[in-house]
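User: I'm preparing a small set of examples for a lab meeting where we compare how different chains pack in three dimensions. I only have the primary sequence for this one, and I'd like the structure in token form so I can line it up with the others. Please keep the answer compact; I'll paste it straight into my notes.
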Amino acid sequence: MTDTIAPAVADPAPPVTDELPLTTAGIRESLLEVYPKKTRRKREKQIVVNAKQASGGGGITVPEIGANSRTIPGIISQRGCCYAGCKGVILGPTRDIVNITHGPIGCGFYSWLTRRNQTHAPTNEHDNFMTYCFSTDMTEENIIFGGEKRLTQAIQEAYDLFQPKAIAVFSTCPVGLIGDDVHQVAAAMKAKLGINVFAFSCEGYRGVSQSAGHHIANNQVFKHVVGEDDTPRGKWSINLLGEYNIGGDAFVIEDLLGRCGIDLVATFSGNSTYDQFANSHMARLNTVMCHRSINYVADMIEKKYGTPWIKVNFIGAKATAKSLRKIAEFFGDRQLIENVERVIGEEYPAVTAALKKYRPRCEGKRAMLFVGGSRAHHYQELFAELGMETIAAGYEFAHRDDYEGRQVLPNIKVDADSRNIEELHVHQDPDKYRPELQDLAGQRETTGYRFKEYDGMMAEMKDQTLIVDDISHWETEKLIQTVKPDIFCAGIKEKYAVQKMGVPCKQLHNYDYGGPYAAFQGAIHFYAEVDRMVNAKVWSFVRPPWENEPVPSATASEIRESEEEER
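Assistant: Understood. Below is the structure token output for the 567-residue chain.
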């Protein structure tokens, strides 16, 4: 790829200022030029041109990017809070744990997983609490005099009504501010009720983004649930980490693994159960989908129980086939390898037929992806299969290793925000650690097989593409105005603003009413959906605001002078 991102040929974007050429560097400058000096210095580190360079040994190096830093006040961010990452992402998709939000009703209601996550209970007799919204509904009186008594009552009421296997408690911002000890309340109720009751100090302000909530959730699930059930599992047993069953993705992956004969012990956390978490340490291999949200659990299970982990990706037909083969290669069993090849052979004709239909209609079109987790990376696979090009991408809550790869981990400085999160000191379990799994991993490594690997998003993106961490609303609008992409992938907060600019916006946080998009069947669904969106005629009739009205512009000093004059 050249260093120029050309505007769309059809339905061209508005003209760009004369001072800024349409190069990636020029576009970057157009995003930064409006900021005050202090803000610019910070955003410069988070907006980079992916200038890749060859390194020794045939590898490549990518630029360093600023990530996992606080959003600048006044910038409209895509991010969510620590509570959202803990309750909404990690624990929310587990159907038989009662998840109680300790706080005002708004936090509980807006993290209610109505359409985002799905689950299939085997029968009506099995618990499924995902359709309920549990909250202590704290009032002003509780904020003043404390809410521990109210929390105790809520836990008792939930137990009396539902008799769950476990109850989890999630702290919201006011709980941290007034000092309610949710862990003490949980421990007392665990002793009284005889079920597992545990809590999360996941106040929304505790981290810079929802990533902190992932880490906190992983820690507590590992401490309080993983390792409780030692029931042996099959010889080809795995866990799938970082798959949340958005739009039914986990259903198609589970079906695919089952047809291969792979024993899926637990999914963290889509379509999951308490018992699966409790038994997850008995799997022989951990496979990680969303690196950022779940790599903590993979590392801790390996340290304590000896289970190695690998990075997989079930988004995209080629990536799915590669991941299945990688799992089979780890176990090294001829029968499993044959099973995997048979299933791939059964699935691929439909994929080939779909690509023959949709690729000619989508080839050459351009996408931008600004999504959480690993989705901004993984979904580039699907666009590439359609012949589309990803010209800009970024994460909401990534760390540097998500962009640059895990090799940078030793060089990442632990900042004050990260120290707010408990770091567990994990040691080998004297009774449950399985050295034979590490021996098997060692044997595989001698043949070039890679464990605990993740090269990051930037290594796989083309040279001179644009990388933006924690993109702001201003930057989104400016990017679309300058280089009108054919499709923009983000979340619900951005969807309608983007579409008013005449660009289709595909939600990749909850898929709107679409999905599943995982594995081979999901890829076919995605091809059809993208074809429908990028080739719809309606977008040519949408006129963004800047075509009819001049865009007001002013420097920070001019704004201050204007405000002083008004006063």
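A couple of notes for your slides: The chain is about 45% helix and 10% strand. The longest strand covers residues 237-243.

User: Perfect, thanks.
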